[in-house]
Structures are given as structure tokens and as C-alpha cells.
UniProtKB/TrEMBL annotation:
It comes from the Bacteria. InterPro entries: Creatin/AminoP/Spt16_N, Creatinase/aminopeptidase-like, Creatinase_N, Pept_M24, Peptidase_M24B. PANTHER family: AMINOPEPTIDASE, AMINOPEPTIDASE YPDF. This is Creatinase. Transmembrane segments: none annotated. CDD domains: APP-like. Residues 138-342 form the Peptidase M24 domain. Residues 5-131 form the Creatinase N-terminal domain. The lineage of its organism: Bacteria, Bacillati, Bacillota, Negativicutes, Veillonellales.
Length: 359
């Protein structure tokens, strides 16, 4: 168990007068225990209590779970797992439950009146996970180093006559060669007009033409943590408008990064980029939030958007990714990950952001 992380969860529980919680999300269980358990359709729950008598309810199918440093309650496919779990819960007290637990388990527990009330405990786990500890930050630095290498290799491949789908397959080979654990999300490789779709799906048979923009949005997983970055380059040539839009987006990225420091709200970061793009006449073509938090998952709770008034604190890791998308024409996005520090931020991505034309 990562006891310091568990203690932070227990502290937030205490602030909400909660004595017990069921952690059900495999990602959150890994965060707290250091062990990945993917239960499939089977019941999995980590029961946390203020008394410290934590228990992991896990199926015998996963004997490696014995490594988790707390008491285990072993289940099997012939048992009424919810009935077993209900017997351990303090029925006269509320139960916090985190996200992603199938309704067949939660409703079954509620039908047994296992607690005096059931409350959403997702925010508790999310709040703790938002601020990365030193171990997490070092892993994320290494993940981004690999992502930088992968991104530069992808840029170098733009000169080849590969369709979008093949480029995505080449990236998988790159991650394997670097010792990464595959993609942190489905990679986006978008040529020309396809770049105007921020979440474009790579297509078979789509080849680039001279003058096309090439959006490369990629990330890998390293030691369970995600990386994510975007660079946009141009094939053979770039028009005056493409150059203009690229410089606007890149400068918006830099302006937002320059504003990151403790006490600034995430909404203010979004505004730093969005207001600049709007001032330059392309505001309506910046169609998404400025960024997202990242860690064990590529998109974690806590975005960089106009509606998030939370303030930046040291240890937060998030993306800064302004974009301009001109339908039927081209798109440009420039994305870096940053770690908020005591007096600013550490930028994790170092592939050049100078306008690049690949010959």
C-alpha cells in the first residue's frame, strides 16, 4: 500500500465526516496499492476505513493480489460477493463509493441496506490523484522523454509516402523499440483537411499532398503513466495563411505556459491562449478547452477550461494545447505537458515548436 496516498484519502474522508469508502476503479486501486487488477466482470473493491482495517475484496482468479499489503477477502465465482461485502460494511454509517463500479454491484449493495446512505466518493480519490508525488513526477518526466523521441521520429517519417493509418502503425513500432507500453490513447495523424477535426481518426488510404498540414497528436505509456503531446508540421510547403495560423497557435501555447504558476486559475490559463487567438481573428475556430490533467490516465479529472476556477498548485500535471481548425482546409494544434512548480512550471516536451516544413 502507498500509505501516504491512503492517508490523504482518509483525511479528505474525515473532512466530509465519512468513516468508510469502497474504491472500485482499478486505476485508483493501483494508485493506492501499487498492484494492477483488471477484474473483468468480477467484483473488485478496496474497503477503506478510518480504523485502518482496510480490506481488499478480490476473486481467487487473481492470486497475485496477495501482494497488496492489507487484509484480503477472497471471493470465487460460486459466492455471493455482494453478500460477503455487505457483511463487512458498517450499516449504520454512510458509505462513500468511487466511480466506475457496475450498477449490478452498487444496486445490489444498496438493496441490502449495507450502509445508512451511499455517497459519491469519486471526488475524494480524484482530488488526491490530481497532485502528483515525487515518484509519479519522475516517471512522467521519463514518459515525456520517450514521447519526445517518438514525436521526432514521426516528424521524420512525414517525408515518406505513408497513409495516415500506416503512420499510426509505425508509431506502435516506435513505442515498442523505446520500451514503452504502447499508446496512451489512439494516436491522431491527420493530413490536410483532416487536421480540422480535433479528434480525427487515422484513415486507411489517405495520403498527404504537398502543402498539407500534418497534425501529430501522440502519447505513450511508461511504468503505467501516460504522456501526450502534439506537433503540427507542413509537407513540402506552407501557405501564407498556414504560416500565420501556425505562429498564432504556437504563440498562444507559449503565452499560456508563461502564465502557469501557483494561485492562477485554470480558467485564466485558458483565457491567456483563447483571448490571444480571438484577438488575431480565429477565436471561433478554437473549439475545445485548452487542456486536461494527465497521469495514470491520459485524461484525468481537472481540466484547463473557461469554467474551471480551481487554482494551480505545485504537482499538478496538465496539457496546454491551443488549436485552430479551419473546416475543409487545415488545422493546427501545439501541445505540451507541464508540471506546476513553486514559482512557475516545468515544460515536459522539448521537440521544436518552430514552424517546420518537411521536404
Amino acid at each position: 500500500m502507498h500509505q501516504n496516498r491512503v492517508n490523504k484519502v482518509l483525511q479528505l474522508m474525515a473532512e466530509q465526516n465519512l468513516t468508510q469508502m469502497l474504491v472500485s476503479d482499478p486505476c485508483a486501486i493501483f494508485y493506492l496499492t501499487g498492484t494492477w487488477i483488471h477484474p473483468g466482470e468480477r467484483l473488485l473493491a478496496l474497503y477503506l476505513t478510518q480504523s485502518g482495517k482496510h480490506k481488499l475484496f478480490v476473486n481467487e482468479l487473481f492470486p497475485f493480489a496477495d501482494a497488496v499489503q492489507c487484509d484480503k477477502v477472497w471471493l470465487n465465482d460460486n459466492m455471493d460477493g455482494i453478500g460477503v461485502l455487505a457483511d463487512y460494511i458498517e450499516k449504520d454509517k454512510p458509505v462513500a463509493v468511487d466511480k466506475n463500479w457496475p450498477s449490478r454491484f452498487l444496486i445490489g449493495l444498496m438493496d441490502r441496506h449495507a450502509g445508512s446512505a451511499f455517497v459519491n466518493g469519486s471526488e475524494i480519490i480524484d482530488r488526491v490523484r490530481m497532485v502528483k508525488d515525487a515518484e509519479e513526477l519522475e516517471i512522467m518526466r521519463e514518459a515525456s522523454k520517450l514521447c519526445d523521441i517518438g514525436c521526432q521520429k514521426m516528424i521524420d517519417l512525414v517525408k515518406e509516402d505513408y497513409d495516415e493509418e500506416t503512420m499510426g502503425k509505425k508509431l506502435g513500432e516506435i513505442w515498442e523499440s523505446l520500451g514503452a507500453s504502447g499508446h496512451s490513447f489512439d494516436p491522431i495523424v491527420a493530413y490536410g483537411p483532416n487536421g480540422a477535426d480535433p479528434h480525427h481518426t487515422t484513415e486507411r488510404g489517405v495520403h498527404k499532398k504537398p502543402g498539407d498540414s500534418v497534425v501529430i497528436d501522440i502519447g505513450c505509456v511508461y511504468n503505467s503513466y501516460c504522456s501526450d503531446m502534439t506537433r503540427t508540421v507542413f509537407y513540402k510547403s506552407a501557405s501564407a495563411e498556414q504560416k500565420k495560423v501556425y505562429e498564432i497557435v504556437r504563440d498562444a501555447n507559449l503565452k499560456a505556459i508563461d502564465k502557469v504558476k501557483p494561485g492562477v486559475t485554470f480558467a485564466e490559463l485558458d483565457a491567456a491562449a483563447r483571448d490571444y487567438i480571438t484577438e488575431k481573428g480565429y477565436g471561433k475556430y478554437f473549439t475545445h478547452r485548452l487542456g486536461h490533467s494527465i497521469g495514470l490516465e491520459d485524461h484525468e479529472v481537472g481540466d484547463v477550461s473557461a469554467v474551471n476556477t480551481d487554482v494551480v498548485v505545485p504537482g499538478r500535471v496538465f496539457s496546454i494545447e491551443p488549436g485552430v481548425y479551419l473546416p475543409g482546409n487545415f488545422g493546427v494544434r501545439v501541445e505540451d505537458l507541464v508540471i506546476a512548480t513553486e514559482d512557475g512550471c516545468e515544460v515536459l516536451n522539448h521537440v521544436s515548436k518552430d514552424l517546420t516544413i518537411v521536404e
